[in-house]
Amino acid sequence: MKNKMKEIKRPLVSVIIPVYNVERYLKECIDSVIKQTYNNIEIICVNDGSTDNCLNILRRYAEQDDRIKVVSTDNKGLPAARNIGLKIAHGEYIMFVDSDDVVNCRMVEIMLSIIQRNDLQLVCCDYTRDLQAFRKITAEYDNENLALIDKTKAMKSINDLKGERYQVVWGKLFDASLFHGILFNEDLCYSEDISLMSRIYYRLDRIGIYDCQLYYWRKHKNQATAKLGIDHIDTVRESFIEFEYFKDKNEVQIAF
Predict the structure, then answer these.
(1) Which residues neighbour 132 within 8 Å (Cβ) at sequence distance 6 or greater?
(2) Residue range 47-52: average pLDDT?
């Protein structure tokens, strides 16, 4: 049965968007965030040394919407850009959006409501790679679409070939307190999400899994994961070593 949305409190949500050479997709991403039905958000855009027109696009948006903060740095990589966002975020909750992706206009509203209604610190939604289908989704809060899992299942799901929803940091709403003492490993060029999520899951007893496609994950040839090759295997291996450490601490038996 569907529940009507109910305002409990209106905490600030920090949406962190690392940006690097995505001028073709950036406007659609930013538009989807500024059009959120829940408007008590700060939008932290970290320009990671883009060589295209991204910085000018971001500055124009910031002139039009005072919720947008633009930080520009030399190119240091995705983990460093996200860490910059975390360090200046003021929100009680944190959301990551990649700058070539798109979010449903009710994503923050729905996921915040789930966290507040169920006393959670983390909720994950589903995603799609079909943009046309995504644009037709009418998102509503439906408690029947919510499952609550423990850290053991979450850690096991990281190792699943179809476990992207558990491996990545986008498509989630985090209680900001989960990042106390935790940042992205800036030595990892790839799979840095797995490293961080392993540490986050270890801190939790319950995780909300919301079965609704509130996030569009764009796949294109210029993104980092599309360029993963043999030279990057060591960074992927290192992230799984960290995952193994927290998996063992949690006494989760997973066969690689």
Answers:
(1) none
(2) 98
In a domain, 2, yes or no: no
- 48 within a domain of the structure (yes/no): yes
Alpha helices, DSSP H, located in the chain: 23-34, 54-64, 78-88, 107-118, 131-135, 151-158, 164-167, 192-202, 233-249
Q: What's the predicted TM-score (pTM) here?
A: 0.86
pLDDT per position as a tens digit, 107-149: 999 999 999 999 999 999 999 998 888 888 888 888 899 999 9
Look up the CATH number of the domain holding residue 34.
Answer: 3.90.550.10
Specify whether the CB–CB gap between 81 and 7 falls below 8 A.
Answer: no
Provide the number of structural domains found in the chain.
1
Is-contact 149 206, C-beta < 8 A? yes
- Write out the H or E segment, with its range, that includes residue 211: strand 207-216
Residues 6+ apart with CB under 8 A from 119: none
